[in-house]
Structures are given as structure tokens and as C-alpha cells.
Design a protein that fits this description.
Elements: H1 2-9, H2 23-32, E1 37-41, H3 49-57, E2 66-70, E3 78-79, H4 80-85, H5 92-100, E4 107-112, E5 122-126, H6 129-140, E6 147-150, H7 157-168, E7 172-175, H8 181-190, E8 195-197, H9 200-207, E9 222-224, H10 229-238, E10 242-243, E11 245-246, E12 256-257, H11 264-269, E13 273-274, E14 278-283, E15 296-302, E16 308-309, H12 313-319, E17 320-321, E18 324-333, E19 339-344, E20 349-351, E21 354-356, H13 358-365, E22 371-381, E23 385-394, H14 402-410, E24 421-424, H15 438-449
Parallel strand pairs: 1-2, 2-3, 6-7, 6-8, 8-9, 9-10, 23-24
Antiparallel strand pairs: 4-5, 5-16, 11-12, 12-13, 14-15, 15-18, 17-18, 18-19, 20-21, 22-23
Helix pairs in contact: 2-3, 6-7, 8-9, 9-10
């Protein structure tokens, strides 16, 4: 974080890299972004990141001129202390002049999309996104007395935005290098955290942890829990008052944000109201704005929206049309200004002509006491066009089979929404930011079914 803030003040563009990437994947991001310096921890989870960083620089498409490592390393890299020591050769006047030359529209951050469906794209954001984070801090009513335990990966927009949001109000952040349910609860309880950030896998692990019942989590006044309505209700019941949030990498994480002062049903069923610096509209397939409460394609405009995809004018032109960013998400905007998230337009599928929202089906499956997590998508079917495919993981010590889960789903869903195929797996392939890599599950299922 210290290096990142220093680079920003010097006018550099920061490009966070997913620590779960292989050397080849990291080389793609470092090379495509035209990065000239690579900074990494010397090691992580038994991996020698210093050596991997040097391997990244050997890629012919990479133009890195210096590799800096944090922590002891025998690799031929520059250590952080050496880098910081070189700062003494720069005068305060030169440093101030460099900072003063930075404009609000200059690119400061380039985050790469998660790549769940293909090669990641570099999302360019300017310094103006600070305003959106300040607005989020106000909606969250953050003060210097607040503290959060951050276990979201710092290369993901949700965590990047959170760090700026907390700094905007002088609030504290305790970092946990690797998430584990019990360890995160230890810190939340021990540090008397007031705000929790997480996604569904984090909260589910915490709520289902055997030590939860004996914990004192009364310090939590707010939990940010983007996900299904059931998740917001569950977190509110077991940890602290939860709100939902809507956003994506291209819109600086937060386009809309709930309020802890709203009734639980509003907090669960909506993703809150739009933050001040964003404008939204919901349109139909013809691009015409729909009536309040009608589901359509959400478009976003304003300073929190990206400047574009780096060196991808084709993708930028497809994503931003007439100044409006096309989210690819289906939402409804009610007359009170609350947004209700329905799902990814590209992930919804049709069974015999009937629309099915994967999130609705996943929520039902995860109500089964033996199910830890569920992922649902459509796969081709000769007679119905598409049918549902569900992959589920099971709570430790429990057992369940696919037919039992289908019977469970039939009691709560229309018959066309019940997954035709249910596969129980040990684990789901996830990105580091908590998204299921559904295309891998589809490929595996189709390969086994062939």
C-alpha cells in the first residue's frame, strides 16, 4: 500500500495483478498494460513470488525494467528498502512539482477484469473516482472510529475501493493476508471491527464456522454483503445489519449502495440507491427507457465509469455507447430510486422459452441445510433449448445427492426452473474475488457427458 500511494503521487498508473495468476497469466497483464516496474511480495502461500516475478519479466511481450520485492529474498531483485532509500535523491521540490502536474482526468488505476470468460481487459480509471469513494463513505457514515478487517484481495475493485473509502474518513483497516473463516472471526472480534466487507463465500464460511455461536460480534454495525437477498438476511441474523451494493470493475465498484437505516426487506431485496456521481437508466432491447419497476438493461454514466479498456478501442466502443456504459446486467429501478438486481443478462437462460435467473435458483439450493454453495447455468438441450445445470458443494460432515436437491427445489420453484442436472463437487473453481468460473464447470460437464 505504501508503494502504491507513492507511485500514485508520482503520477504513475497502478496495475494490480491477481496473486493467483500463473506466470503466463501474470505476464499477459504485465505485458498488455506496458508496465515498466513490477512490485511483489517475496513469497505467498508457499510460492516464491520473487522468482515468479523474474520469470514474468522473461516473457518477450513484457517491458519491465525493475522488479521490487517486499520481504527477504535471494532472488536477483531490488528490495523495498533499497527503493525507498533512493527517494532521498529526489528533492521535495521535484516531488511536489510531479504531484502538482497530475490532472484529475489522468489515468491512475488500471484493473483487469476477472477473466471468467476469456482474456482480461484493462479497465482505466482516473483520479476522479476518489469522489465516488467519498460519497460511499458518507452513505456508510464512516468516521475515524470505524475499523474493518480486510480479507478481500487488494487487486480486486471491491477492496481497492474500500481502501480509498476508509482513508477518505480516516477509518482503520486491518489486513488479513489469506482468508480463513476462524481467523477472520478472531480479528473481527479481537479488533472490535465495526464494518465487515465480504462476498458470499466469506460470509458463508464465517456463519457456518463452529466457533461462531460463542463469538461476540456486537461491535459490527454494518456488513457489506453483495449477493442474494437470502445472503443479506442471513448475515443480518448471524453477524450484523447487512446491506447490499451494486457495481463492477468498470464502474469503480459502487454504483448503488444500501443504507443501514432502511428496513431489512429493502436492504435484502434491493441494492440500494445510486450514489450521487452516477446516473443510471434502465432500457429495453430497443434502447428505450422502461417504466419504474420494469426489468431491463442497466446503463450507467458519470465520473465513476471507466475511461475505457486499455488498447482495446473495439471493446470500449461496444461497452460505452453514446456516453452510457452498458453493464450487461438486468435490473429494475423503482419510483423511490432503489435498484433491484435480477442477474447477468448473458447468464440468464431460457427453458422452453421461459426465462430462468441463475441467482434465484442458486439461492433456493443454498437454503438446503447440507449445501454450502451453489452455481447454476444453462446448458443446451435438444427438446427445450436449454436446461439448468447446478454444481453444489456440501457443508463439512453432511451428505446430499442430486435427486434430493431437485426434490427440494421443486417445492420452491416452478418446474422449468428446477435444474435438470445437479452435480455435487468437492469445490468450485473460483476467481480470487469470489466469482465462480462457470465456463470451466460447463466444459467439464459437457466433456463427461460426451
Amino acid at each position: 500500500m505504501l508503494v502504491e500511494l507513492g507511485l500514485i503521487r508520482a503520477g504513475a498508473v497502478v496495475v494490480p495483478v491477481n496473486t493467483g495468476f500463473t506466470v503466463a497469466e501474470a505476464a499477459y497483464v504485465v505485458g498488455q498494460s506496458d508496465s515498466v516496474m513490477l512490485v511483489s511480495s517475496s513469497s505467498l502461500r508457499g510460492r516464491c513470488l520473487a522468482e515468479e516475478s523474474l520469470a514474468v519479466t522473461a516473457d518477450p511481450d513484457v517491458s519491465v525494467q525493475a522488479v521490487v520485492t517486499v520481504g527477504p529474498s535471494s532472488a536477483a531483485t531490488t528490495d523495498l528498502d533499497t527503493l525507498l532509500g533512493s527517494a532521498e535523491s529526489v528533492s521535495p521540490q521535484d516531488s511536489a512539482a510531479r504531484a502538482a502536474a497530475i490532472g484529475p482526468d489522468d489515468v491512475v488505476l488500471m484493473l483487469y477484469t476477472s477473466g471468467t470468460t476469456g482474456f482480461p481487459k484493462g479497465v482505466m480509471h482516473s483520479h476522479r473516482v476518489i469522489g465516488n469513494m467519498s460519497d460511499a463513505a458518507a452513505r456508510l457514515e464512516l468516521t475515524e472510529d470505524d475499523l474493518t478487517v480486510m480479507y478481500l484481495p487488494l487487486f480486486h475493485i471491491f477492496a481497492v475501493a474500500a481502501t480509498v473509502t476508509f482513508m477518505a474518513r480516516g477509518a482503520a483497516m486491518v489486513l488479513l493476508e489469506v482468508f480463513e473463516g476462524g481467523a477472520s472471526l478472531d480479528l473481527i472480534e479481537g479488533e472490535r471491527a465495526t464494518v465487515a466487507y465480504g462476498v458470499a463465500p466469506h460470509y458463508l464460511d464465517q456463519i457456518r464456522h463452529p466457533s461462531l455461536a460463542g463469538r461476540d460480534l456486537s461491535s459490527l454495525r454494518l456488513c457489506l454483503a453483495p449477493g442474494s437477498p437470502d445472503l443479506v438476511r442471513m448475515v443480518s441474523e448471524h453477524m450484523g445489519p447487512a446491506i447490499s451494493v451494486y457495481g463492477m470493475t468498470e464502474t469503480t465498484s459502487m454504483t448503488s449502495l444500501g443504507s443501514v437505516h432502511d428496513p431489512l426487506e429493502v436492504r435484502a431485496e434491493t441494492v440500494g440507491r445510486v450514489l450521487p456521481r452516477s446516473k443510471v437508466k434502465v432500457v429495453d432491447e430497443h434502447g428505450d427507457e422502461v417504466e419504474p419497476g420494469v426489468v431491463g438493461h442497466l446503463l450507467v454514466q458519470g465520473s465513476p465509469v471507466m475511461q475505457g479498456y486499455y488498447k482495446r478501442p473495439d471493446a470500449t466502443a461496444e461497452a460505452i455507447v453514446d456516453g452510457w456504459f452498458r453493464t450487461g446486467d438486468a435490473l429494475a429501478l423503482d419510483s423511490d430510486g432503489y435498484l433491484r438486481f435480477v442477474g447477468r443478462i448473458t447468464e440468464m437462460f431460457k427453458v422452453g422459452g421461459e426465462n430462468v435467473d441463475p441467482i434465484e435458483v442458486e439461492s433456493v439450493l443454498m437454503r438446503h441445510p447440507s449445501v454450502a454453495f451453489a452455481s447454476v447455468q444453462g446448458v443446451q438441450d435438444e427438446r427445450l433449448g436449454e436446461v439448468g445445470l447446478a454444481h453444489v458443494t456440501v457443508v463439512a460432515g453432511e451428505t446430499v445427492d442430486g435427486e434430493e436437491l431437485r426434490r427440494f427445489a421443486r417445492d420452491q420453484l416452478a418446474s422449468f426452473k428446477v435444474p435438470r442436472h445437479v452435480v455435487v463437487v468437492d469445490q468450485l473453481p473460483m476467481t480470487a474475488s469470489g466469482k465462480v468460473r462457470k465456463f470451466l464447470l460447463r466444459e467439464q460437464f459437457l466433456g463427461e457427458d460426451a
